[in-house]
Amino acid sequence: MLVKTFEAVDMSEALRMVKAELGPDAMIISSRKEKKKGLFGFFSKPVVQVTAGLEMKPRQPAQNPYREAPEPQLSAKEMMESSMLAPLARELKELRERVEILSRKETAARAGAAPRAEEPAVKPAVVAPVPEPATDPGTKPIAKQDLEEMKKLLFKTLAAREAGEGAARAEAPAPAAQPKAKSADPGEVKGFGGLRGALRMVVNELHRKGLERGAVRAVMEQLQPEAKRGGTAETIRPFLPQAFKSVIKCAGPLTLKKNGPRIIALVGPTGVGKTTTVAKLAALYSLREGHRAALVTIDNFRVGAVEQLKTYSRIMGVPVEVAATPMELEAAIELHSDKELILIDTAGRSPKDMEKIGELKGFLESRFAIEIHLCLAATTRDRELQEIVERFGVLPISRVIFTKLDESESYGCIVNAHLRTKFPLSFFTTGQRVPEDLEIATAGRLAGLVLGECKQ
């Protein structure tokens, strides 16, 4: 890792120097403020010292285009068959050599005799020539009948080899008949076997939409009155949107006051789009609704994140502050206490790094009332969403924002995570445009996405 220390009059200038020297991928290792001595020890002025590092990626060795391809390997089945047939192959080879030797001896014994117009009953297979052993003068010529018997034995063995595998399969006992199980839908959810056909079809449909068993049960409880009236799957399905609305709780739009700011911090794993979501919220409530807003970032680990938020602030005309310590965060909030909305962008944290999540908790434990919204991506799997919520649960989370709905094919995970955590849903993001791709979360919108009744 390449490590360098930069000195500037403030944090913004120091970050600009880091980006210019090491690039946007640089990581801030430490930062501190100190007073630099002036002339004869007087006229000292505060400066910021920032230590940054850049991970040097090792070069990958170039692949040799002329490298020979590895020889094909035998499969396990081919190796097994080869090992099973090896003894039989050796036996056949020895038998063919013996027949050939006997044939040559027969020919030598009848040397000088007139050839007989007699063909063997069975034409022998072509075999590779083998060296002829020395002929013993005292060897008794072999009778032709014995030679024919040896040849028949050879061909019989060859035929048995070819038909051996098929005969073994034919003689193998048939597997015992298993009791026929009751037919069921491949997507049937366990625990709902007692439902009659109409409800079971709806249950399986919800399961295929990505809802886990607990979420399916919560939705189905809302459909029980219609089912008791003898409804079919076709008559019950139109009641699904209303059933979703009954179990999904959304926070609604932000309510702002004139006598003090509402302070909201966005937290979550890396890469879920917190910085872009902060900019979208600022644009929605400052540009469209005319509220006074300010931005604060405590993401000092990615140099590019600060510059990105500053770019958005210049476009929207919204002030932005950079805080490197909890004291600086409180000072920034105090500076903009006349605003109606203060949005705080935080650094992404891995759910497996509890130390970093603990540091984030220390930042947000302030004398000011900071409302924490957890950002989650709709493209995340159920098991990972559960782990993220559990790890970030050390923070006082009050709302959940789901991002990247435009990149997801299934939305059942949103319902599952919401019903497990009971945190109200506040916003959905559906793209990168600011502020167009942001919408207030509603149960009807989520139901339409899950059931495929509305497009993204």
Compact overview of the structure:
This protein is α/β, with parallel strands linked by helices and 456 residues long. The protein is built from 15 helices and eleven strands.
Structural write-up:
The chain has 456 residues and is of the alpha/beta class. Among the domains are: 2-54; 197-247; 262-451, Rossmann fold (3-Layer(aba) Sandwich). It has 15 helices and eleven strands. The strands form two sheets. Strands 6-5-7-4-8-9-10-11 form an eight-stranded mixed β-sheet, with helices on both faces. Strands 1-3-2 form a three-stranded antiparallel β-sheet, covered by helices on one side. Helix 14 (412-421) links the parallel strand 9 (397-403) and strand 10 (425-429). The radius of gyration is 40 Å and the shape is flat. Mean pLDDT is 77; it is low at 64-69, 114-142 and 179-191.
Write the layout of secondary structure elements.
Layout: E1 2-8, H1 11-22, E2 27-36, E3 45-54, H2 76-109, H3 144-171, H4 197-208, H5 213-221, H6 224-228, H7 233-236, H8 240-247, E4 262-267, H9 274-288, E5 293-297, H10 303-316, E6 320-322, H11 326-335, E7 341-345, H12 354-364, E8 370-377, H13 382-391, E9 397-403, H14 412-421, E10 425-429, E11 438-440, H15 443-451
Parallel strand pairs: 4-7, 4-8, 5-6, 5-7, 8-9, 9-10
Antiparallel strand pairs: 1-3, 2-3, 10-11
Helix pairs in contact: 1-10, 2-3, 4-5, 5-8, 8-15, 9-10, 13-14
